[in-house]
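note to self — DONT lose this again. spent like an hour looking for the file last time. sequence + predicted structure for the chain T wanted, 101 res
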Amino acid sequence: MTLTLSRRTTTVLLVLVAVIVVAPLVLPGIEGTFRGTDDAASVAIEAARPGYQPWARPFWEPPSKEIESLLFALQAALGAGVLGYALGRRHGARSRDVADR
């Protein structure tokens, strides 16, 4: 099955993507600090139970935020690669099955 998009549909989709990317950068009142879920969870736990002490500690912490971001990006890239490989294998197997019929 081949999917073809009209020129108008493609243009509309590209404009929509551009608006989604640019809007947060130019709209006023959307400033804020970028914080992760770990920070949000820590704040929520501290609000619910002041003085709470975690029962588990990490066995290693990255030496800097940059290294932590690098490791997160590598993890995401590895996951995307595995997912892409699995989907490609599945698509290839399905294509071979159709060709064999």
